[in-house]
């Protein structure tokens, strides 16, 4: 019996030794490489935000670039930009502001709920257009802050729940942006989208956001509502940004833009987002028994 | 995983896909002359897609990922949802040019009732098997092949050269951006078209002797033409690999020791790489072409070897042997997938907070599975 135990120990040592030997043979399975990528023609990238809040309204017109080019995207400042209010039958002109790297409305105008807008961008004698309606906003009641201890993958911290109501039967396509201490959270994982796939009661019950905050963080939540085509665009964008080639990654494709070329077939990238703007702010104040400082 | 009762999360449940296939087969052969023989056959294949299952109904019978189904049909167990059948003739001919040389030619038709839809990204290959059904017809493949076969040195060596052409009808492939996992309406994510493949295979084989093995080389191409993919132009599926070379050598040193060497070389698989990048919503986004699979992984090659030692039986009732093998002996880093991403702070696995970011640059990260893979095994048989 004792001999059997000794043999078993020896066998386990042998297995351990072989395992260590094998690990020695397996260096990192990832490395940076350089592949010869095919070049592309220059494609205009139009990113237009039109809301009922003057501060957010802007149109950026840039161009695509080489994959390995780490510089900021070249701005096409010679473009001509305007938005037509099709409901009120009037034109809103834009002018290029170098400091903003974008075109801003000439008269600091804002969109109106229920109006239909058409974006027109002319660049190098080619026109690009898109249309969308500025939808009614949902109801944003309040933000609640809760301290959550470490649980599974969720880190210890303060988490915000959004309370409100979605009184609409259709066009329930939403995006939430978070501004923390005056900095917009803009990593790919910060693009938060939701629709009515799981019903419209999500805000009634309190929608807890998976963003971790620390004590004294000043948080502003911004809520947008837009047409399905815009929602699909952002969904596809997120899908592409997270496309690591893994099991749940679909074949990569450019997000389908809602901007179309007019009178020609040239490609165009980007999105025209028309949305109402809602926001709410809070400061994270720890309650009794909750930590004053977090990593 | 099932959400808790009362949870607002709805579980994902997929419908079963069941099919029943039956085949009837007739075969005959005849020596028409001393030199010429013919072999023929006919297979009748019958396939039924059966319940339990759900068939979605679409406007104008056109599955569209952007539009929800207009209705559904529920089928009970073994209810017939769709039926296909087809005759699959085949004929083969052999003509002896000499005592050790023959000429062979063959034609056959096949219906394949289960197809595979494979992704085309540079990432992990994903295959989804798709049975024929109300919206997906079975693939029909017609193949002709002809070749010369020569035995040399009293049949110690075999030499053959064979060419083929294959025509596919109703072949499927994924739409751009298709979502194939946990998707019941798979017909909305695929498109149907035609394809063809052709090639030449060369084989030299040594059957006997202390050293035996084979050397094979194939040049082949596969193309598909499917409306809605790659602007309707022909494209290569992921598995199109023009050059495929394999060398297998076995050697017996003595009664106890033997060894084996394998070498494989193939053209890299056809995939889609980005052709640029752009900035939108503060994100750097890779830009893709409308053309599918215009790019290639680097060529794949590796050498494996193994050494086998037979333990003397010494009168025991069982025999045993030790085997040491080395996979990818020269440590070739064959890519498994590529990720087109940004490297932060020159660290491939940066996981710090945004405040710690010092630099950020676009990059390609390759994942490979193994360099060397040694294995030691002990085999015994009673």
Low-confidence stretches of chain B: none
Q: What percent strand of chain B?
A: over 45%
Tell me the total number of β-strands of chain A: 18
Shape of chain A: globular
* Average pLDDT figure of chain B: 91
Name the chain pair whose interface involves the most residues: A-B, 64 and 63 residues
Give, in spatial order, the strands making up the sheet with the most strands of chain B.
1-2-5-6-9-10-11-12-13-14-19-20-23
Task: Please provide the ordered H/E string of secondary-structure elements of chain B.
Answer: EEEEEEEEEEEEEEEEEEEEEEE
Strand residues, percent of chain A? 35-45%
- Approximate helicity band of chain A: 10-25%
Low-confidence stretches of chain A: 1-8
Could you give the order of strands across the largest sheet of chain A?
A: 6-5-4-7-8-16
Order of helices and strands of chain A: HEEEEEEEEEEEEEEEHEEE
Number of DSSP-assigned strands of chain B: 23
How many domains, in number, for the residues of chain B?
Answer: 1
Number of helices of chain A: 2
How far apart the termini of chain B lie comes to: 45 Å
Oligomer: heterodimer
The helix count of chain B comes to 0
Protein name (chain A): DUF4249 domain-containing protein
Pfam families (chain A): DUF4249 (PF14054)
Organism (chain A): Nitritalea halalkaliphila LW7
């Amino acid at each position: 019996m004792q001999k059997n135990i000794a043999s078993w120990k020896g066998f386990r040592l042998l297995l351990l030794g072989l395992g260590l030997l094998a690990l020695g043979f397996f260096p990192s399975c990832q490395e940076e490489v350089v592949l010869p990528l095919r070049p592309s023609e220059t494609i205009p990238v139009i990113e237009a935000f039109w809301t009922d809040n003057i501060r957010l309204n802007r149109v950026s017109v840039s161009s695509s670039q080489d994959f390995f080019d780490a510089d900021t995207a070249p701005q096409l400042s010679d473009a001509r930009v305007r938005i037509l209010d099709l409901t009120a039958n009037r034109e809103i002109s834009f002018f290029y502001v170098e400091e903003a790297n974008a075109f801003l409305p000439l008269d600091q105008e804002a969109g109106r709920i229920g109006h239909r807008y058409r974006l027109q961008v002319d660049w190098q004698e080619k026109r690009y257009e898109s249309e969308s309606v500025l939808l009614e906003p949902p109801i944003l009641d309040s933000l609640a802050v809760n301290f959550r201890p470490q649980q599974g993958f969720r880190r210890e911290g303060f988490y915000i729940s959004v309370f409100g109501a979605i009184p609409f039967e259709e066009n329930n396509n939403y995006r939430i942006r978070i501004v923390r201490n005056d900095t917009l959270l803009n990593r790919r994982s910060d693009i938060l989208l939701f629709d009515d796939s799981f019903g419209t009661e999500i805000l009634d019950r309190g929608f807890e956001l998976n963003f971790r905050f620390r004590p004294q963080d000043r948080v502003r939540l911004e809520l947008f509502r837009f047409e399905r085509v815009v929602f699909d665009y952002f969904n596809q964008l997120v899908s592409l940004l997270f496309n690591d080639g893994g099991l749940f990654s679909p074949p990569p494709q450019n997000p389908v833009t809602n901007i179309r070329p007019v009178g020609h077939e040239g490609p165009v990238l980007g999105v025209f987002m028309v949305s109402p703007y809602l926001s709410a702010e809070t400061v994270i104040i720890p309650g009794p028994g909750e930590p004053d400082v977090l990593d | 995983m099932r959400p808790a009762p009362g949870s607002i999360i709805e579980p994902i449940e997929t419908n079963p896909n069941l099919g029943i296939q039956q085949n009837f087969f007739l075969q005959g052969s005849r020596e028409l002359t001393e030199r010429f023989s013919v072999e023929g056959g006919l297979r009748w294949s019958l396939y039924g897609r059966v319940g339990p299952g759900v068939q979605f109904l679409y406007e104008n019978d056109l599955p569209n990922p952007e539009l929800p189904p207009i209705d559904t049909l529920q089928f009970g167990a073994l209810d017939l949802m769709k039926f296909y059948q087809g005759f699959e003739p085949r004929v083969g001919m052999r003509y002896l040019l000499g005592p050790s040389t023959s000429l062979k030619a063959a034609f056959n038709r096949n219906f394949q009732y289960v197809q595979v839809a494979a992704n085309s990204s540079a990432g992990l290959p994903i295959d989804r098997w798709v049975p024929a059904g109300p919206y997906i017809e079975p693939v029909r493949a017609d193949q002709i092949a002809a070749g010369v076969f020569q035995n040399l040195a009293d049949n110690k060596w075999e030499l053959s050269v064979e060419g083929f052409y294959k025509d596919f009808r109703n072949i499927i492939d994924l739409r751009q951006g298709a979502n194939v996992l946990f998707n019941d309406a798979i017909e909305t994510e695929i498109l149907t078209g035609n394809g063809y493949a052709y090639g030449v295979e060369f084989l030299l084989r040594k059957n006997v002797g202390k050293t035996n093995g084979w050397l094979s080389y194939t040049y082949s191409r596969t193309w598909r033409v499917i409306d809605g993919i790659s602007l309707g132009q022909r494209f290569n599926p992921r598995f199109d690999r023009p050059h495929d070379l394999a060398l297998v050598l076995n050697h017996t040193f003595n009664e106890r020791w033997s060894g084996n060497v394998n070498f494989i070389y193939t053209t890299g698989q056809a995939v889609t790489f980005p052709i640029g990048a752009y900035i939108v919503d503060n994100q750097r986004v890779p830009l893709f072409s409308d053309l599918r699979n215009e790019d290639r992984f680097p060529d794949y090659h590796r050498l494996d070897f193994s050494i086998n030692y037979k333990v003397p039986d010494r009168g025991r009732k069982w025999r045993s042997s030790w085997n040491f093998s080395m996979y990818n002996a020269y440590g070739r880093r064959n890519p498994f997938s590529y990720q087109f991403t940004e490297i932060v702070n020159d660290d491939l696995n940066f996981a710090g907070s945004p405040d710690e970011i010092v630099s950020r640059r676009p990059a390609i990260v390759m994942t490979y599975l193994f360099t060397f893979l040694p294995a030691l095994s002990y085999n015994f048989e009673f």
